[in-house]
Amino acid sequence: MKTLEASTLRQGISDALNTVAYTGERISIRRHGKPVAVLVSVEDAAMLEAIEDRLDVAEAKKALKEKGSIPWAEVKKRLGLKSR
Predict the structure, then answer these.
(1) In terms of Cα–Cα distance, which of 9, 7, 54, 45 is closest to 27?
(2) Is the domain of 50 the same as that of 82?
(3) What's the rounded Cα separation, in Å, for the pair 70 and 29?
(4) Which of 8, 12, 59, 83 is 20 to 30 Å apart from 53, CA to CA?
(5) Is 14 within 8 Å of 38 (Cβ atoms)?
(6) 47 pLDDT band (50/70/90 cuts)?
(7) Domain that includes residue 54, residue range
(8) At 4, which helix (H) or strand (E)?
(9) Any idea what the CATH number is for the domain that residue 11 is in?
């Protein structure tokens, strides 16, 4: 992974964007020598979102199986919401 200081990135943002967009290379951005962000392609960002979504669904399924959870119908009833 390529690494750039934020000040260098500001001067060459167009080149950095082209590198990420056309080669898929990730660029680590540092400020005062410390990593603060990573510039990634749209495809990489979409893949990360998909992974996060899967993890969220898995956690939600796990939470639904926990004892003491309240069924959605009961929550709506307690809140005075109408069922469809």
Answers:
(1) 9
(2) yes
(3) 45
(4) 83
(5) no
(6) very high
(7) 42-84
(8) strand 2-5
(9) 3.40.1620
